[in-house]
Specification:
Layout (H helix, E strand, L loop, with lengths): L4 E5 L4 E6 L2 E6 L2 E2 L18 E10 L14 E6 L7 E3 L10 E3 L3 E2 L2 H8 L7 E5 L1
Parallel strand pairs: 1-10, 4-8, 7-9
Antiparallel strand pairs: 1-2, 2-3, 5-6, 5-10, 6-7
């Protein structure tokens, strides 16, 4: 049986989970830079493109940014050198899903993220397309 994998289509603001059950599509938010290009520098608010994998799955419900819990229940850290801190995570701002709103991560509705976490593990392949 083929292990699950993930495709993020930045142009469509969609994450696809490919598994033995078929393909499930989920809306996402990506980097807020309006040009939508590949990540070029730290702080450019672009989501990197390429073939990566999940480096770790971390409980993030208590993580804070600027005093708010913004990452949802899990953070799927993506191994995408040279970039650090890029991941797929939930949100406390579900109204941003379907927009360009992040610093470079892929943001999902918490309930969708829980579905993803139940299907993937460390080493799961991720392809992020323009």
């Amino acid at each position: 049986m083929t292990p699950p994998s993930i495709i993020v289509r930045k142009s469509e603001l969609v994450l696809e989970l490919l598994s033995a059950e078929g393909v499930e599509r989920f809306p996402v938010a990506i980097g807020s830079n309006p040009d939508g290009r590949d990540k070029e520098a730290p702080g450019d608010c672009r989501t990197p493109e390429g073939a990566f994998e999940i480096a770790s799955i971390e409980e993030s419900a208590d993580w804070e940014r600027d005093g708010e819990r913004v990452y949802g229940p899990f953070f799927l850290r993506i191994a995408c050198p040279p970039w650090e801190g890029i991941g797929i995570h939930g949100t406390n701002e579900s109204e941003t899903i379907g927009t360009r709103a992040t610093l470079g991560c892929v943001r999902m509705r918490n309930e969708d993220l829980l579905r993803i976490v139940s299907q993937v593990g460390v080493g799961t392949k991720i392809v992020i397309l323009a």
